[in-house]
Specification:
By secondary structure, this protein is an alpha+beta fold. Helix content is 44%, strand content 10%. It has 10 helices and 7 strands. The strands form 2 sheets. Strands 6-5-4-3-7 form a 5-stranded antiparallel β-sheet, covered by helices on one side. Strands 1-2 form a two-stranded parallel sheet. This is Site-specific DNA-cytosine methylase.
């Protein structure tokens, strides 16, 4: 059987040229197609201005979101539809309370960096295309949220330098923070059974715990686990303040802590009783008044728990 001839596609070369070569009718592959170069016009002054404005909006998006969430939370503008800010964020924006807290904290850092950077600059609307390099997303500033404002500025400047004068990644910022923390870390001198006070500072995870006392039940290298009126928390030592109670006073507070824990674990507490325990968890002295003792004993009786 005779094999049919194969069909091959003819190659056509495209050459950008204004000259014309003669076409050989016996060789179609020699055909030359003229392609004109497309000239891309430069941006006009108005277009350049629009571009800069839009880029600023993109860069500041996380900052604007954080500021808006802060106002929604502080003014409780969610109260007409939701009981808690956490439920509101989940239903309205599809993210957790923690993510909202990250954005709020990031906005505060951004504002701090902008304020300092603008002290000697007329135009306060600075971005990465201005005279100061600023963050463009929340993850870049998340490691800075646990630092003091002055430290935030120093770390950010070092991170920008390490990134070669560009916006640093979150990893670069985190590495700079870690080096500074290791360099400035002080030994953990807390002891098990010691009574200390919680300092919230800028730690969102400790919100609502400021001024509460706790008893150290575990001592780590740079943190302690403390038992408070509503549970256990592992806290860095820079968020703790020693109350310098006597040993006998620490023992009294340990007994009080045990009584509160038994009540909490009973599962029989109603809201008024929980409010009382919260007040006891904020005591600024190592003893109960007679009225406080009677009130606590009454709650224990109601919950059928022996003091």
């Amino acid at each position: 059987m005779t094999k049919p001839p194969s069909k091959r596609k003819k190659a056509i070369s495209a050459v950008s040229s204004n000259s014309t070569r003669p076409v050989n009718p016996d060789n179609p592959a020699s055909v030359t197609i003229d392609v004109s170069a497309v000239e891309i016009p430069e941006l006009s002054d108005e277009e350049q201005s629009d571009r800069l404005l839009l880029e600023r909006k993109v860069e500041r998006a996380f900052f604007e979101a954080g500021k808006a969430l802060m106002e929604l939370r502080d003014r409780r503008l969610y109260r007409s539809t939701h009981k808690t800010f956490e439920e509101y964020c989940r239903d309205r924006f599809g993210h957790s309370r923690q993510q909202s807290n990250y954005l709020i904290a990031a906005a505060e850092v951004y504002e701090n960096l902008t304020t300092i950077g603008c002290q000697n600059v007329v135009n306060e609307d600075l971005t990465t295309i201005g005279s100061q390099i600023l963050p463009t997303n929340e993850r870049q500033v998340r490691p800075l949220t646990k630092l003091e404002p002055q430290q935030q500025q120093e770390v950010w400047q070092q991170a920008v330098e390490q990134a070669g004068g560009k916006v640093p990644t979150g990893r670069i910022v985190k590495d700079v923070v870690q080096r500074i923390m290791e360099r400035t870390q002080v030994p953990n001198t807390y002891q098990i059974g010691e009574v200390c006070q919680i300092l919230v500072k800028d730690n969102l995870e400790l919100r609502g715990k400021g001024g509460c006392w706790g008893i150290v039940n575990h001592v780590g290298e740079f943190s302690c686990t403390v038992t408070m009126w509503d549970g256990e928390y592992t806290v860095r030592i820079d968020y703790l303040k020693p109350l310098n109670y006597l040993d006998s006073e620490c023992q009294q507070m340990q007994l009080l802590c045990d009584r509160i824990k038994r009540l909490r674990d009973s599962g029989k507490l109603e809201a008024p009783a929980e409010a009382v325990l919260k007040c006891l968890g904020e005591l600024k002295r190592p003893y109960l008044t007679k009225f406080e003792e009677k009130l606590l004993s009454f709650i224990e009786q109601e919950c059928l728990i022996a003091p």
